[in-house]
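Weekly puzzle thread! Below is a chain. First person to post its structure in token form gets bragging rights.
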Amino acid sequence: MFEQIRNKYLYNKTQIVVLDKKGIVLQSDDLLFTLQKQTLISDFHPFFETIISLIDLEYNEFTFSCIHIDYQGVEKTIDIIFNSGSNIENPFLIFVDFTEHYNNFQSIAQEKNESVLSFHLAEIKNQQLQSEKNFKNKFLANVSHDLVTPMWGFKVFLSYLEKTELTESQLEYVNLLKDTNNHITHLVQDLIDLAKIESGQMKVVNEKFSLSEGIKSLIAVIKPKVEEKNLEFKVAIQDNITDKLIGDKIRLNQILINLLDNSIKFTKKGTITFEINVKDSDSDFLTLQFLVKDTGIGMVVAQKSDVFQSFKKLHNSKKIEGLGLGLSIVSTLVELMDGQIDYQTKEGEGTTFELVIPFEIAQ
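Winning reply:
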């Protein structure tokens, strides 16, 4: 049995070559390569010039690894064991076929090298993206803050100018300037918020607040905007909702005002509807559902996530102002408050945004 295993797995993997003291091939079993007898071993392959130079070193044995030989159509990668022999023994060579082993090793090494290169390339790209991101955030923050001060100064100046004696046309110009100033201020504030979000500085503050007081102030801000466009404003709040909650009242109002402003912007006629319902509740927590519905122009969206991307404008009309930051900021704030946001839209019929946010009940 041993001889059968040896014949099957070893004999066809090794070749023995006997040389004389000058490096001439005397015998070869030719199991790997067919060698010409009575020829110099160096004629077989130039590598064996080295072997001939070692023959004079008697009683020495050398091993040469990973020698690639392509001879008469036979291509193999072998290890070579060389014994220089003695005065009474001829030198001999043993070829051991490790072609499969070295090919596998090369493949693994290549994959490893490619993996290492890919990793370093990804690392370089990440560093470049981070540098670009840091530069952008720093630029946005600095420029935005530099713009805020003159914008507020301009607003104060307009408020003083409005109190003077003005003609009807002058008052119209002042109101136009106020609207423009408010719009620019809103855009600047969006840029500041975006810079805070991308730099990780945007935080939520959980503190006790009154839901009913927050909604009253929200309606007071939104109602004049709705009336200005001659739209109907419907508010539906479920009865007996727990009023004292713990959460970030300012960020909640920012989210809702953004959504309502968005609906007003894209609605020329019809209704803006604002609803609050209880989604889930227990003794300690209350999950509220906020719905903002409009009968506006709706949206055509290739991918649902596009709506919440920064600087993504879903309408190409030049009449619709904005940088496309509002919903991106809303999405991030909702995530920071452990909430969820979704929407349904149909072109020409309107859009409904659903906001679900959990709050702790104030004891």
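Puzzle host: Confirmed. Bonus trivia for everyone else. The two ends are 85 Å apart (CA to CA).
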